[in-house]
Protein backbone atom coordinates (compact mmCIF):
# COMPACT_ATOMS: atom_id res chain seq x y z
CA UNK A 1 0.00 0.00 0.00
CA UNK A 2 1.41 3.37 -1.04
CA UNK A 3 -0.26 6.64 -0.06
CA UNK A 4 -0.10 9.90 -1.96
CA UNK A 5 -1.45 13.15 -0.52
CA UNK A 6 -2.20 16.34 -2.42
CA UNK A 7 -1.38 19.30 -0.14
CA UNK A 8 -2.93 21.74 -2.59
CA UNK A 9 -6.33 20.09 -2.28
CA UNK A 10 -6.16 19.64 1.53
CA UNK A 11 -8.63 21.82 3.48
CA UNK A 12 -7.32 20.89 6.94
CA UNK A 13 -10.56 19.32 8.16
CA UNK A 14 -8.50 16.85 10.20
CA UNK A 15 -10.62 13.83 9.27
CA UNK A 16 -7.58 11.76 8.25
CA UNK A 17 -5.89 12.32 11.62
CA UNK A 18 -8.99 11.04 13.40
CA UNK A 19 -9.24 7.98 11.14
CA UNK A 20 -5.55 6.99 11.02
CA UNK A 21 -3.45 8.89 13.57
CA UNK A 22 -0.40 6.65 12.99
CA UNK A 23 -0.26 7.59 9.34
CA UNK A 24 -1.46 11.20 9.12
CA UNK A 25 -0.79 14.38 11.08
CA UNK A 26 -1.48 18.09 10.54
CA UNK A 27 1.04 20.92 10.16
CA UNK A 28 0.92 23.26 13.17
CA UNK A 29 0.95 26.48 11.10
CA UNK A 30 -2.05 25.77 8.90
CA UNK A 31 -3.45 22.32 9.63
CA UNK A 32 -2.41 20.93 6.24
CA UNK A 33 -1.96 17.15 6.07
CA UNK A 34 1.43 15.63 6.91
CA UNK A 35 2.04 12.06 5.73
CA UNK A 36 3.91 10.22 8.52
CA UNK A 37 4.22 6.91 6.72
CA UNK A 38 3.70 6.54 2.98
CA UNK A 39 3.97 2.74 3.13
CA UNK A 40 2.01 1.82 6.26
CA UNK A 41 1.89 -1.80 7.48
CA UNK A 42 -1.10 -3.96 6.41
CA UNK A 43 -2.69 -3.78 9.89
CA UNK A 44 -3.38 -0.07 9.25
CA UNK A 45 -4.90 -0.61 5.78
CA UNK A 46 -8.49 -0.36 7.04
CA UNK A 47 -7.85 2.92 8.86
CA UNK A 48 -6.05 4.38 5.85
CA UNK A 49 -8.88 3.43 3.50
CA UNK A 50 -11.31 5.09 5.87
CA UNK A 51 -9.12 8.21 6.00
CA UNK A 52 -9.20 8.40 2.20
CA UNK A 53 -12.97 7.81 2.18
CA UNK A 54 -13.76 10.58 4.66
CA UNK A 55 -11.33 13.19 3.30
CA UNK A 56 -13.80 15.88 2.17
CA UNK A 57 -11.32 17.31 -0.34
CA UNK A 58 -10.39 13.95 -1.91
CA UNK A 59 -6.75 14.77 -1.20
CA UNK A 60 -5.66 11.23 -0.27
CA UNK A 61 -5.10 8.53 -2.85
CA UNK A 62 -3.97 4.96 -2.34
CA UNK A 63 -1.91 2.95 -4.80
CA UNK A 64 -2.01 -0.76 -4.03
CA UNK B 1 -57.18 24.84 -14.67
CA UNK B 2 -57.26 21.67 -12.58
CA UNK B 3 -54.47 20.27 -14.74
CA UNK B 4 -52.34 23.37 -14.28
CA UNK B 5 -52.78 23.09 -10.55
CA UNK B 6 -51.72 19.46 -10.61
CA UNK B 7 -48.58 20.36 -12.52
CA UNK B 8 -47.89 23.16 -10.02
CA UNK B 9 -48.33 20.95 -6.97
CA UNK B 10 -45.88 18.38 -8.32
CA UNK B 11 -43.08 20.76 -7.34
CA UNK B 12 -42.56 20.26 -3.60
CA UNK B 13 -41.89 23.12 -1.23
CA UNK B 14 -38.44 23.46 0.33
CA UNK B 15 -37.46 23.27 3.18
CA UNK B 16 -40.87 21.75 3.88
CA UNK B 17 -42.45 20.95 7.21
CA UNK B 18 -41.34 18.25 9.59
CA UNK B 19 -43.85 15.78 10.96
CA UNK B 20 -44.58 16.93 14.53
CA UNK B 21 -44.84 13.30 15.67
CA UNK B 22 -41.31 12.65 14.50
CA UNK B 23 -39.38 15.92 14.89
CA UNK B 24 -35.93 14.39 14.40
CA UNK B 25 -36.75 13.19 10.89
CA UNK B 26 -36.20 15.46 7.88
CA UNK B 27 -39.44 16.54 6.15
CA UNK B 28 -41.03 13.51 4.49
CA UNK B 29 -41.31 15.13 1.05
CA UNK B 30 -37.52 15.41 0.90
CA UNK B 31 -37.08 11.69 1.45
CA UNK B 32 -39.91 10.42 -0.72
CA UNK B 33 -39.08 11.82 -4.14
CA UNK B 34 -37.47 8.54 -5.22
CA UNK B 35 -34.52 10.28 -6.89
CA UNK B 36 -31.30 11.84 -5.61
CA UNK B 37 -32.10 15.33 -6.90
CA UNK B 38 -35.20 17.20 -7.99
CA UNK B 39 -36.55 20.72 -8.24
CA UNK B 40 -38.46 22.34 -5.37
CA UNK B 41 -39.93 25.74 -4.71
CA UNK B 42 -38.25 28.01 -2.12
CA UNK B 43 -39.42 31.13 -0.28
CA UNK B 44 -38.88 33.51 -3.24
CA UNK B 45 -40.84 31.33 -5.70
CA UNK B 46 -37.78 30.06 -7.56
CA UNK B 47 -37.21 26.33 -8.08
CA UNK B 48 -33.57 25.37 -7.50
CA UNK B 49 -32.32 21.78 -7.47
CA UNK B 50 -32.55 19.98 -4.15
CA UNK B 51 -29.90 17.29 -3.72
CA UNK B 52 -30.93 14.60 -1.23
CA UNK B 53 -28.92 11.53 -2.31
CA UNK B 54 -25.74 10.92 -0.31
CA UNK B 55 -23.64 9.95 -3.35
CA UNK B 56 -24.99 12.85 -5.43
CA UNK B 57 -24.18 15.26 -2.57
CA UNK B 58 -20.55 14.11 -2.61
CA UNK B 59 -20.38 14.63 -6.37
CA UNK B 60 -21.94 18.09 -6.25
CA UNK B 61 -20.02 19.36 -3.22
CA UNK B 62 -16.65 18.40 -4.69
CA UNK B 63 -17.33 19.57 -8.25
CA UNK B 64 -15.29 22.67 -9.22
CA UNK B 65 -18.13 23.70 -11.59
CA UNK B 66 -20.28 24.32 -8.51
CA UNK B 67 -19.81 27.69 -6.80
CA UNK B 68 -20.63 29.30 -3.44
CA UNK B 69 -20.56 32.79 -4.98
CA UNK B 70 -23.77 34.24 -3.59
CA UNK B 71 -23.49 37.34 -5.79
CA UNK B 72 -24.25 35.40 -8.98
CA UNK B 73 -27.81 35.86 -10.29
CA UNK B 74 -29.92 32.80 -9.52
CA UNK B 75 -28.22 32.01 -6.23
CA UNK B 76 -30.76 30.32 -3.91
CA UNK B 77 -30.69 32.42 -0.73
CA UNK B 78 -31.94 30.75 2.45
CA UNK B 79 -33.86 33.83 3.61
CA UNK B 80 -35.06 37.19 2.39
CA UNK B 81 -32.67 38.94 4.80
CA UNK B 82 -29.74 37.03 3.29
CA UNK B 83 -30.84 38.08 -0.20
CA UNK B 84 -31.29 41.74 0.75
CA UNK B 85 -27.93 42.01 2.54
CA UNK B 86 -25.81 40.20 -0.05
CA UNK B 87 -24.09 43.38 -1.28
CA UNK B 88 -23.00 44.15 2.28
CA UNK B 89 -21.39 40.77 2.77
CA UNK B 90 -17.65 40.72 2.17
CA UNK B 91 -15.70 37.69 1.02
CA UNK B 92 -15.59 34.99 3.72
CA UNK B 93 -14.89 31.26 3.81
CA UNK B 94 -18.61 30.75 3.17
CA UNK B 95 -18.93 32.62 -0.12
CA UNK B 96 -15.44 32.37 -1.68
CA UNK B 97 -14.40 29.80 -4.29
CA UNK B 98 -11.07 28.36 -5.37
CA UNK B 99 -7.89 30.28 -4.59
CA UNK B 100 -9.69 32.99 -2.58
CA UNK B 101 -11.28 30.34 -0.42
CA UNK B 102 -7.99 28.51 0.15
CA UNK B 103 -6.28 31.78 1.14
CA UNK B 104 -8.94 32.73 3.70
CA UNK B 105 -9.42 29.22 5.03
CA UNK B 106 -5.71 28.66 5.62
CA UNK B 107 -5.54 31.77 7.82
CA UNK B 108 -8.22 30.24 10.01
CA UNK B 109 -7.27 26.56 10.17
CA UNK B 110 -4.23 26.53 12.47
CA UNK B 111 -6.11 26.86 15.79
CA UNK B 112 -8.45 24.01 14.87
CA UNK B 113 -6.11 21.10 14.22
CA UNK B 114 -6.93 17.79 15.84
CA UNK B 115 -3.86 17.99 18.13
CA UNK B 116 -4.72 21.45 19.41
CA UNK B 117 -8.29 20.44 20.05
CA UNK B 118 -7.16 17.36 21.97
CA UNK B 119 -5.15 19.67 24.24
CA UNK B 120 -8.42 21.46 25.07
CA UNK B 121 -10.06 18.22 26.24
CA UNK B 122 -9.16 18.71 29.95
CA UNK B 123 -10.52 22.29 29.89
CA UNK B 124 -13.71 21.09 28.19
CA UNK B 125 -14.06 18.38 30.83
CA UNK B 126 -13.54 20.89 33.63
CA UNK B 127 -16.04 23.44 32.27
CA UNK B 128 -18.58 20.64 31.75
CA UNK B 129 -18.20 19.38 35.34
CA UNK B 130 -18.55 22.93 36.72
CA UNK B 131 -21.67 23.67 34.67
CA UNK B 132 -23.25 20.37 35.78
CA UNK B 133 -22.32 21.11 39.43
CA UNK B 134 -24.07 24.45 39.13
CA UNK B 135 -27.13 22.92 37.47
CA UNK B 136 -27.41 20.23 40.18
CA UNK B 137 -27.09 22.85 42.91
CA UNK B 138 -29.87 24.97 41.39
CA UNK B 139 -33.63 24.55 41.21
CA UNK B 140 -35.42 21.73 39.40
CA UNK B 141 -36.48 21.59 36.65
CA UNK B 142 -33.59 23.27 34.84
CA UNK B 143 -33.33 24.36 31.20
CA UNK B 144 -30.46 22.37 29.71
CA UNK B 145 -29.90 25.04 27.02
CA UNK B 146 -29.03 27.80 29.50
CA UNK B 147 -27.47 25.46 32.08
CA UNK B 148 -25.06 23.61 29.79
CA UNK B 149 -25.65 23.50 26.03
CA UNK B 150 -25.02 27.18 25.28
CA UNK B 151 -22.46 28.11 27.97
CA UNK B 152 -20.07 25.24 27.20
CA UNK B 153 -19.37 25.94 23.50
CA UNK B 154 -19.45 29.68 24.27
CA UNK B 155 -16.82 29.30 26.97
CA UNK B 156 -14.64 27.21 24.66
CA UNK B 157 -14.85 29.53 21.65
CA UNK B 158 -14.17 32.52 23.94
CA UNK B 159 -11.17 30.73 25.41
CA UNK B 160 -9.84 29.91 21.93
CA UNK B 161 -10.45 33.36 20.45
CA UNK B 162 -9.45 35.32 23.53
CA UNK B 163 -12.86 36.99 23.92
CA UNK B 164 -13.88 37.73 27.54
CA UNK B 165 -16.71 35.34 28.43
CA UNK B 166 -18.09 38.03 30.76
CA UNK B 167 -19.36 39.79 27.59
CA UNK B 168 -21.34 36.74 26.50
CA UNK B 169 -24.82 38.25 27.00
CA UNK B 170 -23.93 40.92 24.47
CA UNK B 171 -22.49 38.74 21.73
CA UNK B 172 -24.87 35.80 22.21
CA UNK B 173 -27.77 38.11 21.53
CA UNK B 174 -26.20 39.29 18.28
CA UNK B 175 -25.00 35.82 17.28
CA UNK B 176 -28.55 34.51 17.71
CA UNK B 177 -29.98 37.22 15.44
CA UNK B 178 -27.34 36.43 12.83
CA UNK B 179 -28.61 32.84 12.44
CA UNK B 180 -32.31 33.52 12.90
CA UNK B 181 -34.23 32.68 9.76
CA UNK B 182 -36.87 35.38 10.04
CA UNK B 183 -34.58 38.23 11.12
CA UNK B 184 -35.09 41.34 8.98
CA UNK B 185 -32.26 42.75 6.89
CA UNK B 186 -32.01 45.68 9.35
CA UNK B 187 -31.83 43.42 12.41
CA UNK B 188 -29.30 41.20 10.77
CA UNK B 189 -27.06 44.14 9.68
CA UNK B 190 -27.35 45.85 13.06
CA UNK B 191 -26.30 42.63 14.79
CA UNK B 192 -23.30 42.22 12.51
CA UNK B 193 -22.26 45.87 13.03
CA UNK B 194 -22.50 45.62 16.81
CA UNK B 195 -20.45 42.43 16.85
CA UNK B 196 -17.97 43.90 14.37
CA UNK B 197 -17.40 47.02 16.46
CA UNK B 198 -16.83 44.93 19.55
CA UNK B 199 -14.33 42.59 17.87
CA UNK B 200 -12.43 45.44 16.19
CA UNK B 201 -11.85 47.01 19.61
CA UNK B 202 -10.60 43.71 21.00
CA UNK B 203 -8.26 43.21 18.03
CA UNK B 204 -6.87 46.72 18.48
CA UNK B 205 -6.14 45.92 22.11
CA UNK B 206 -4.35 42.71 21.11
CA UNK B 207 -2.17 44.62 18.63
CA UNK B 208 -0.35 46.12 21.60
CA UNK B 209 -1.07 43.51 24.30
CA UNK B 210 -0.98 40.11 22.56
CA UNK B 211 -1.96 36.96 24.46
CA UNK B 212 -1.96 33.29 23.53
CA UNK B 213 -5.19 33.19 21.52
CA UNK B 214 -6.60 33.35 18.00
CA UNK B 215 -7.42 37.08 18.04
CA UNK B 216 -3.80 37.77 18.97
CA UNK B 217 -2.72 35.61 15.98
CA UNK B 218 -4.97 37.69 13.73
CA UNK B 219 -3.67 40.92 15.30
CA UNK B 220 -0.09 39.79 14.62
CA UNK B 221 -1.01 39.25 10.96
CA UNK B 222 -2.48 42.76 10.86
CA UNK B 223 0.74 44.14 12.33
CA UNK B 224 2.79 42.22 9.76
CA UNK B 225 0.67 43.69 6.94
CA UNK B 226 -0.72 40.30 5.88
CA UNK B 227 -4.28 41.16 6.84
CA UNK B 228 -6.37 44.33 7.04
CA UNK B 229 -8.12 45.07 10.35
CA UNK B 230 -11.65 44.83 8.85
CA UNK B 231 -10.79 41.41 7.38
CA UNK B 232 -9.41 40.22 10.72
CA UNK B 233 -12.63 41.41 12.36
CA UNK B 234 -14.64 39.40 9.88
CA UNK B 235 -12.61 36.21 10.44
CA UNK B 236 -13.14 36.62 14.18
CA UNK B 237 -16.87 37.22 13.73
CA UNK B 238 -17.29 34.10 11.61
CA UNK B 239 -15.58 32.00 14.28
CA UNK B 240 -17.49 33.57 17.16
CA UNK B 241 -20.91 33.08 15.55
CA UNK B 242 -20.21 29.62 14.17
CA UNK B 243 -18.83 28.49 17.53
CA UNK B 244 -22.04 29.26 19.35
CA UNK B 245 -25.23 27.83 18.01
CA UNK B 246 -23.99 24.67 16.38
CA UNK B 247 -22.56 22.60 19.24
CA UNK B 248 -25.19 24.03 21.59
CA UNK B 249 -27.98 22.63 19.42
CA UNK B 250 -26.25 19.26 19.14
CA UNK B 251 -25.92 18.98 22.93
CA UNK B 252 -29.59 19.80 23.52
CA UNK B 253 -31.12 17.91 20.63
CA UNK B 254 -28.83 14.93 21.18
CA UNK B 255 -30.01 14.73 24.77
CA UNK B 256 -33.65 14.92 23.67
CA UNK B 257 -33.05 12.10 21.16
CA UNK B 258 -31.18 9.94 23.67
CA UNK B 259 -33.88 10.35 26.32
CA UNK B 260 -36.30 8.89 23.74
CA UNK B 261 -33.92 6.00 23.13
CA UNK B 262 -32.98 4.85 26.65
CA UNK B 263 -31.14 1.72 25.49
CA UNK B 264 -28.85 3.90 23.38
CA UNK B 265 -28.34 6.38 26.22
CA UNK B 266 -27.44 3.46 28.48
CA UNK B 267 -24.81 2.30 26.00
CA UNK B 268 -23.20 5.73 26.04
CA UNK B 269 -23.48 6.05 29.82
CA UNK B 270 -21.89 2.73 30.68
CA UNK B 271 -19.10 2.35 28.14
CA UNK B 272 -15.48 2.75 29.21
CA UNK B 273 -14.24 2.77 25.62
CA UNK B 274 -13.49 6.21 24.08
CA UNK B 275 -13.85 4.67 20.60
CA UNK B 276 -17.45 3.70 21.42
CA UNK B 277 -18.15 7.27 22.60
CA UNK B 278 -16.53 8.72 19.47
CA UNK B 279 -18.61 6.45 17.25
CA UNK B 280 -21.79 7.36 19.13
CA UNK B 281 -21.11 11.05 18.49
CA UNK B 282 -20.79 10.40 14.73
CA UNK B 283 -24.16 8.61 14.72
CA UNK B 284 -25.83 11.44 16.66
CA UNK B 285 -24.35 13.94 14.18
CA UNK B 286 -25.77 11.87 11.31
CA UNK B 287 -29.16 11.35 12.91
CA UNK B 288 -29.73 15.00 13.90
CA UNK B 289 -27.84 17.05 11.27
CA UNK B 290 -28.14 20.51 12.83
CA UNK B 291 -27.46 22.60 9.63
CA UNK B 292 -30.89 21.72 8.26
CA UNK B 293 -31.63 24.46 5.74
CA UNK B 294 -29.17 23.13 3.18
CA UNK B 295 -25.85 24.15 1.67
CA UNK B 296 -26.46 26.74 -1.04
CA UNK B 297 -24.64 26.59 -4.37
CA UNK B 298 -24.92 27.72 -8.00
CA UNK B 299 -23.82 25.87 -11.15
CA UNK B 300 -21.14 27.62 -13.25
CA UNK B 301 -21.48 25.17 -16.16
CA UNK B 302 -23.92 22.47 -17.26
CA UNK B 303 -23.51 19.39 -15.09
CA UNK B 304 -24.84 15.91 -15.87
CA UNK B 305 -25.72 14.02 -12.74
CA UNK B 306 -27.97 11.04 -11.95
CA UNK B 307 -29.79 11.32 -15.29
CA UNK B 308 -30.50 15.05 -14.89
CA UNK B 309 -28.84 18.14 -16.34
CA UNK B 310 -28.17 21.00 -13.97
CA UNK B 311 -27.78 24.06 -16.24
CA UNK B 312 -25.24 26.85 -15.77
CA UNK B 313 -26.89 29.44 -13.52
CA UNK B 314 -29.22 26.95 -11.78
CA UNK B 315 -29.42 27.21 -8.00
CA UNK B 316 -28.54 24.10 -6.01
CA UNK B 317 -29.45 23.26 -2.41
CA UNK B 318 -27.77 20.29 -0.77
CA UNK B 319 -30.01 19.00 2.02
CA UNK B 320 -27.56 17.56 4.53
CA UNK B 321 -30.26 15.95 6.75
CA UNK B 322 -31.72 14.15 3.72
CA UNK B 323 -28.28 12.86 2.65
CA UNK B 324 -27.73 11.59 6.17
CA UNK B 325 -31.06 9.73 5.98
CA UNK B 326 -30.36 8.18 2.56
CA UNK B 327 -30.95 4.42 3.08
CA UNK B 328 -28.36 3.63 0.38
CA UNK B 329 -25.67 5.10 2.67
CA UNK B 330 -27.28 4.37 6.06
CA UNK B 331 -29.67 1.38 6.19
CA UNK B 332 -32.75 2.03 8.36
CA UNK B 333 -31.77 5.69 8.70
CA UNK B 334 -34.62 6.46 11.11
CA UNK B 335 -33.07 4.15 13.71
CA UNK B 336 -30.66 5.84 16.14
CA UNK B 337 -27.98 3.15 16.42
CA UNK B 338 -24.88 4.37 18.24
CA UNK B 339 -22.93 1.30 17.10
CA UNK B 340 -23.40 1.80 13.35
CA UNK B 341 -20.54 2.94 11.10
CA UNK B 342 -21.58 6.55 10.47
CA UNK B 343 -18.33 8.42 9.92
CA UNK B 344 -19.13 9.13 6.27
CA UNK B 345 -22.06 11.34 7.31
CA UNK B 346 -22.48 14.88 5.95
CA UNK B 347 -23.36 16.69 9.21
CA UNK B 348 -20.24 18.84 8.69
CA UNK B 349 -20.99 19.03 4.94
CA UNK B 350 -18.49 17.74 2.38
CA UNK B 351 -15.87 19.12 0.01
CA UNK B 352 -13.67 22.17 0.40
CA UNK B 353 -16.22 23.94 2.61
CA UNK B 354 -16.46 21.18 5.19
CA UNK B 355 -16.81 22.58 8.74
CA UNK B 356 -13.65 24.15 10.08
CA UNK B 357 -14.54 23.60 13.74
CA UNK B 358 -15.53 19.95 13.47
CA UNK B 359 -12.74 18.58 15.68
CA UNK B 360 -13.69 21.01 18.44
CA UNK B 361 -17.35 20.01 18.09
CA UNK B 362 -16.47 16.31 18.23
CA UNK B 363 -14.51 16.64 21.45
CA UNK B 364 -17.11 18.87 23.10
CA UNK B 365 -19.83 16.35 22.27
CA UNK B 366 -17.75 13.35 23.36
CA UNK B 367 -17.09 14.99 26.72
CA UNK B 368 -20.58 16.38 27.32
CA UNK B 369 -22.71 13.36 26.40
CA UNK B 370 -20.46 11.04 28.35
CA UNK B 371 -20.24 13.25 31.45
CA UNK B 372 -23.84 14.43 31.65
CA UNK B 373 -25.57 11.02 31.67
CA UNK B 374 -22.95 9.54 33.97
CA UNK B 375 -23.22 12.37 36.48
CA UNK B 376 -27.01 12.61 36.25
CA UNK B 377 -28.21 9.03 35.61
CA UNK B 378 -31.83 9.90 36.41
CA UNK B 379 -31.93 12.80 33.91
CA UNK B 380 -35.34 13.05 32.23
CA UNK B 381 -37.58 15.54 30.44
CA UNK B 382 -39.57 17.74 32.80
CA UNK B 383 -42.29 18.30 30.18
CA UNK B 384 -43.95 16.12 27.58
CA UNK B 385 -42.11 15.77 24.25
CA UNK B 386 -45.12 17.45 22.61
CA UNK B 387 -44.40 20.61 24.58
CA UNK B 388 -40.89 21.07 23.18
CA UNK B 389 -40.62 23.89 20.68
CA UNK B 390 -38.40 22.91 17.76
CA UNK B 391 -36.33 25.48 15.83
CA UNK B 392 -37.84 25.17 12.40
CA UNK B 393 -37.09 28.89 11.87
CA UNK B 394 -33.36 28.86 12.52
CA UNK B 395 -30.34 28.05 10.36
CA UNK B 396 -29.38 25.46 12.98
CA UNK B 397 -32.00 22.93 14.07
CA UNK B 398 -32.65 22.30 17.74
CA UNK B 399 -35.07 23.14 20.53
CA UNK B 400 -35.43 26.52 22.19
CA UNK B 401 -35.54 25.07 25.70
CA UNK B 402 -35.07 21.61 27.12
CA UNK B 403 -36.61 21.51 30.61
CA UNK B 404 -35.00 18.59 32.45
CA UNK B 405 -35.20 17.18 35.93
CA UNK B 406 -33.44 14.34 37.80
Automatic annotation (TrEMBL), chain A:
Q: Which cofactor does it need?
A: [3Fe-4S] cluster
Per its UniProt record, what SUPFAM superfamilies does this chain match?
4Fe-4S ferredoxins
Origin, by domain of life? Bacteria
What does the UniProt keyword field contain?
3Fe-4S, Electron transport, Iron, Iron-sulfur, Metal-binding, Transport
Q: Residues in domain 4Fe-4S ferredoxin-type?
A: 1-29
Q: Name one GO molecular function term.
A: electron transfer activity
Family matches, as Pfam families: Fer4_13 (PF13370)
Function, in words? Ferredoxins are iron-sulfur proteins that transfer electrons in a wide variety of metabolic reactions.
Give the protein's recorded name.
Answer: Ferredoxin
Species source reads Amycolatopsis mediterranei (strain S699)
TrEMBL record, chain B:
Pathway terms, separated by semicolons: Antibiotic biosynthesis; vancomycin biosynthesis
Q: Does the keyword Transport apply?
A: no
Matching Gene3D superfamilies, A to Z? Cytochrome P450
Q: Where does the record place a coiled coil? A: none
Cite the GO molecular-function annotations of the record.
heme binding; iron ion binding; monooxygenase activity; oxidoreductase activity, acting on paired donors, with incorporation or reduction of molecular oxygen
Which UniProt key words apply to this protein?
Answer: Heme, Iron, Metal-binding, Monooxygenase, Oxidoreductase
Q: Which InterPro entries match?
A: Cyt_P450, Cyt_P450_B, Cyt_P450_sf
Question: Which superkingdom is the protein from?
Answer: Bacteria
The record's section on Pfam families has: p450 (PF00067)
Similarity comment: family membership: Belongs to the cytochrome P450 family.
According to its UniProt entry, the function of this protein is described as: Involved in the coupling of aromatic side chains of the heptapeptide of vancomycin.
User: What is this protein called in UniProt?
Assistant: Cytochrome P450
**Species:** Amycolatopsis mediterranei (strain S699)
What does the record give as the organism's lineage?
A: Bacteria, Bacillati, Actinomycetota, Actinomycetes, Pseudonocardiales
